[in-house]
Write a structure and sequence with these properties.
The chain is an alpha+beta fold. It has two domains: 3-155, Roll (PH-domain like), CATH 2.30.29; 161-197. It contains seven helices and seven strands; from the N terminus they run ααβββαβββαβααα. Strands 1-2-3-4 form a four-stranded antiparallel beta sheet. Strand 5 (93-99) and strand 6 (106-112) form a beta hairpin. Helix 6 (161-180) runs antiparallel to helix 7 (186-197). The protein is elongated and about 80 Å long.
Length: 199
C-alpha cells in the first residue's frame, strides 16, 4: 500500500469517526446513554469528538480521533487534543467549573489537585474538560449539578467514617473468637455485639 493510499485510509477513518461523533451527539441523552458503556448515567459529546461519560463514582473524558481533533491539535498544539481516555474519580476531584454556552462555547471542567486549571486552553481543550454549544446547555447543566453534588457528598462525609466501621467489624471478630474459645459467655458476646453495632 502506498503512502498516498495510507493517507487516504487515515483521512477516511477520521471522517468516519467524526460522522459517528456527530450522530451520537445529535441523539437525545437517553439514546446516547444506551450506546455508551454499561453504568453511564449521563453522556455529553461535542463537535470536536470529545465525550464525557458520567458514572456513579467517576467521570471519563474520551477524546476520539477525528478531523476536528486533528485540526484543533495542529492549531492549538499543547491543548492535549489527542485520542484517549482520562478517568477522574469524584474522591480525587476538588471542584467543578461550569459555564453555559452563550456567545462563546460553554464548558464543564473537573478540577483536581494535580492540574493547571486556570488557563483558557485548559477549560476548552484540556484533558479534564469538555466544551459544548448552546444546544447542550440544559444537558450540561444537569451533568454539572450531578457531578457537583457527588463531589460535595464525598467532601462532606465524616472523616474516618469508614475506619470506624472497619474497627467495629474487627472488634466483633475478636469477640466472636473469644466466644468460640469459651473465654466469654454468649450473653457477654451478645452485649458487646449490640454495643459495637449501636443497637
Amino acid at each position: 500500500m502506498s503512502i498516498l493510499d495510507k493517507a487516504k485510509n487515515y483521512a477516511k477513518g477520521l471522517k468516519d469517526q467524526e460522522a459517528k461523533n456527530k450522530e451520537l451527539g445529535s441523539l437525545p441523552m437517553e439514546e446516547r446513554i444506551k450506546q455508551r458503556p454499561e453504568g453511564v448515567l449521563f453522556c455529553l459529546i461535542n463537535n470536536l469528538g470529545k465525550i464525557l461519560d458520567v458514572y456513579e463514582n467517576k467521570v471519563v473524558f474520551t477524546a476520539t480521533r477525528s478531523t476536528s481533533t486533528l485540526v484543533t491539535g495542529i492549531l492549538f498544539s499543547g491543548s492535549q487534543m489527542t485520542q484517549g481516555e482520562k478517568t477522574i474519580y469524584y474522591r480525587d476531584a476538588i471542584g467543578i467549573q461550569f459555564k453555559p454556552s452563550s456567545i462563546t462555547d460553554g464548558y464543564i471542567q473537573i478540577e483536581t489537585s494535580a492540574g493547571n486549571m486556570t488557563s483558557t486552553s485548559s477549560k476548552y481543550g484540556g484533558e479534564n474538560s469538555i466544551q459544548f454549544g448552546k444546544a447542550c446547555n440544559e444537558d450540561a447543566a444537569t451533568i454539572a449539578e450531578f457531578i457537583k453534588n457527588k463531589i460535595e457528598e464525598i467532601k462532606s462525609a465524616p472523616v474516618g467514617a469508614g475506619a470506624q466501621q472497619n474497627s467495629s467489624a474487627d472488634e466483633l471478630i475478636k469477640f466472636k473468637s473469644l466466644l468460640d474459645a469459651g473465654v466469654i459467655t454468649p450473653e457477654e458476646f451478645a452485649e458487646k455485639k449490640k454495643q459495637l453495632l449501636g443497637l
